[in-house]
From TrEMBL:
Residues 198-274 form the GHMP kinase C-terminal domain. This is 4-diphosphocytidyl-2-C-methyl-D-erythritol kinase. Coiled coil: none annotated. Gene3D superfamilies: 3.30.230.10, GHMP kinase, C-terminal domain. Catalyzes the phosphorylation of the position 2 hydroxy group of 4-diphosphocytidyl-2C-methyl-D-erythritol. GO terms for biological process: isopentenyl diphosphate biosynthetic process, methylerythritol 4-phosphate pathway; terpenoid biosynthetic process. The active site is at K11, D136. It comes from Calderihabitans maritimus. Keywords: ATP-binding, Isoprene biosynthesis, Kinase, Nucleotide-binding, Transferase. Belongs to the GHMP kinase family. IspE subfamily. Residues 66-144 form the GHMP kinase N-terminal domain. It catalyses: 4-CDP-2-C-methyl-D-erythritol + ATP = 4-CDP-2-C-methyl-D-erythritol 2-phosphate + ADP + H(+). Its EC number is 2.7.1.148.
Length: 283
């Protein structure tokens, strides 16, 4: 069995702004996405007939409902490959956390099978397929630092962000992205990110300006319905974070720390307080 293992990196939102709602109920966004070192490992191998999938956890589906399975099926439909494929996911990214775990697995599956079977799709063609699977999948194929617009399909590669030491803390519950967008009310937004300033900060490698512009407007929804998320933000700041911002639609909060040592100290304390806590950095 020939196998290929592809890292599937989680993403954070350095910024997230919602510009409006479309006819199909999707929202136009403008956000800066960033890959971080926290990752799943997706192994694709030639095996048996058709497509099969499993993982090291019962927390994600082992059938068509898994976004990685759907990615493989879409690629099969697009290219007509006939080989049997098995997908194995080593899950490390928390589920329904706002970190794009399912999207990262789907992206890694597209990249892995394309390479394993020599299908010859270009990165641009993979991004087009990714778009059909979910709004965060195109970025997960690209990785790095990018301005993401439209509903998630318009990508602009940005200068690599400076290394940011992060502590991520997720409460026990998960959050539905669809529900957060459904409840979003632009009239409740009091602070919006200045994406132009954040892009400028990246170009100038100005960490302070970048950190000052980290804002996520979806906090207006999630913090109202889950006060625990606001408490985690406060706790991060009390532990010395320069900034504490919710990831995607939540409920994970990231604390941005001045350096590795400061982040490690906060991580040790938060580990005692929340079920899922990670020390990581931008990549
Ligand atoms: C919150 C973010 O993670 C920020 O990066 C993304 O905007 C969401 O990306 P995602 O989870 O990959 O989104 P999808 O799986 O495509 O969509 C889940 C649901 O979120 C809502 N949705 C998603 C993206 C978007 N731009 N507008 C939306 O309104 C839709 O109701 C959709 O049914
Ligand atoms: N490979 C996968 N990994 C994680 N969740 C998956 C996967 N496939 C399907 N799912 C389902 O998708 C839902 C959302 O999971 P995911 O971890 O991707 O959320 P998320 O990080 O909040 O996503 P996003 O940040 O893109 O909105 C879960 O309820 C889960 O059952």
């Amino acid at each position: 069995m020939t196998g290929l293992t592809v890292p599937a990196y989680a993403k954070i939102n350095l910024t997230l702004d919602v510009l409006g709602k479309r006819e199909d109920n999707y929202h136009e966004v403008s956000m800066i996405l960033q890959s971080i070192n926290l990752r799943d490992l997706v192994t694709v191998s030639r095996s048996g007939k058709g497509i099969t999938i499993d993982s090291n956890t019962a927390a994600i589906p082992a059938d068509y409902d898994n976004l990685a399975y759907r990615a493989a099926l879409l690629l099969k439909e697009r290219t007509g490959f006939t080989e049997g494929i098995h997908i194995y996911i080593e899950k490390n990214i928390p589920v329904a956390a706002g970190l794009g775990g399912g999207s990262a697995d789907a992206a890694a599956t597209l990249i892995g099978i394309n390479y394993l079977l020599g299908l010859g799709l270009t990165p641009g063609e993979l991004i087009c397929l990714g778009k059909q699977l979910g709004a965060d999948v195109p970025f997960c194929i690209l990785g790095g630092t990018a301005l993401v617009e439209g509903i998630g399909e318009k990508l602009t590669i940005l200068p690599k962000a400076p290394t940011l030491w992060l502590v991520l803390a997720k409460p026990e519950f998960g959050v539905s992205t669809a529900e957060v967008y459904r409840r979003f009310d632009k009239n409740k937004v009091t602070e919006r990110p200045d994406n132009a300033a954040a892009v400028e900060a990246l170009a100038r490698e100005d960490m302070e300006l970048l950190v000052a512009n980290m804002v996520n407007v979806l906090e207006t929804v999630t913090l109202e319905h889950y006060p625990e998320v606001a408490r985690i933000k406060d706790r991060m700041l009390s532990l010395g974070a320069m900034r504490a911002v919710m990831c995607g639609s939540g409920p994970t909060v990231m604390g941005v720390f001045g350096g590795q040592k400061e982040a490690e100290q906060a991580y040790v304390l938060l580990k005692e307080e929340y079920p899922e806590v990670f020390l990581t950095r931008t990549r």
